[in-house]
Design a protein that fits this description.
Shape of chain A: globular
Helix content of chain A: 25-40%
Number of strands of chain B: 10
Number of domains of chain B: 1
CATH superfamily of chain A: Beta-grasp domain
Oligomer: heterodimer
Number of helices of chain B: 3
Helix content of chain B: 25-40%
Number of helices of chain A: 3
Strand content of chain B: 25-35%
Number of strands of chain A: 5
Shape of chain B: globular
CATH class of chain B: Alpha Beta
Structural class of chain B: alpha+beta
Largest interface: A-B, 20 and 32 residues
Largest sheet of chain A: 5 strands, mixed
Radius of gyration of chain A: 12 Å
CATH architecture of chain B: Alpha-Beta Complex
CATH class of chain A: Alpha Beta
Distance between the termini of chain A: 37 Å
Largest sheet of chain B: 4 strands, mixed
CATH topology of chain A: Ubiquitin-like (UB roll)
Strand content of chain A: 25-35%
Number of domains of chain A: 1
CATH architecture of chain A: Roll
Strand order of the largest sheet of chain B: 1-6-8-2
Distance between the termini of chain B: 30 Å
């Protein structure tokens, strides 16, 4: 299982901030998330960046037990 | 920032739940070999969206991801302007009332050009490359800010 972190609008769409999901790569973890959280989450995910730990990732990036995948929707920091 | 621990080094990135005090960063950035200190304070302002008057903002982030990115932004600034003195970026998290600082950037350098340019780079990059989300509050409701952009990678800055 890999830890998925859901932030901002992604958290709101999923209804949770974290989830442990199966998958051997980032793409498989995200597919499991869409299956669990549904269409609204899929819509947010489509506009989001995905990081593996603290760096950008691709769907093919392999994940291990201690990795964290983060879903990062469009940002609005600053002022 | 009442019990803030001021670092002894040249870099200072932080996320704060308490109100930011720009003067603290400005004073910290003063260096004997720097003739310029540029401080930018981005404040929550009263504005209108969704036909409502905004009364407060709320910032959400992941602490480790945001601090990692802020640290990387400072490193990029130092690589582009090699003679910078102090570089600090502080961002609020949680609820921010109108007129409070949401973000403060401070840069010191021997001369003003580098200080201004590096400070501008830092605040622009905070908005584009740091995982941070803003929720806008009005009387009786709230929503995520519509003023958002896709998060960019560092090589796009």
């Amino acid at each position: 299982m890999t830890r998925l972190r859901l932030l901002g609008p992604a958290r709101e769409a999923a209804g949770v901030a974290r989830a442990d999901l199966p998958g051997g790569c980032v793409g498989e973890v995200l597919d499991a998330a869409v299956e669990r959280f549904g269409d609204e989450f899929a819509r947010v995910l489509a506009r989001s960046r995905v990081w593996l730990n603290t760096e950008p990732a691709t769907r093919e990036s392999p994940v291990g037990l201690h990795d964290e995948v983060s879903v990062l929707p469009p940002v609005s920091g600053g002022c | 920032m009442s019990d803030v621990q001021v670092p002894t080094g040249r870099d200072w990135v932080a996320l704060a739940e308490e109100p930011l005090v720009p003067e603290v960063l400005s004073a910290w950035a003063i260096r004997p070999d720097c003739g310029a200190v540029v401080t930018f304070s981005g404040t929550a302002r009263r504005s209108s969206t969704f036909e409502h008057e905004i009364i407060a903002l709320e910032y959400e982030t992941s602490t480790d991801l945001a601090l990692s990115r802020l640290t990387q932004l400072v490193a990029i600034a130092r690589s582009r302007w090699s003679d910078l003195g102090a570089v600090g970026i502080h961002h609020r998290v949680g609820r921010v009332e109108v007129t409070e600082s949401a973000v403060v950037v401070v840069v010191s350098a021997p001369h003003r050009d580098a200080a201004f340019l590096a400070a501008r780079f830092c605040i622009d990059s905070v908005k584009r490359a740091v995982p941070m989300w803003k929720r806008e509050f009005w009387a009786g409701g709230s929503a995520w800010s519509e003023q958002c952009e896709d998060l960019v990678d560092l090589d796009q800055l």
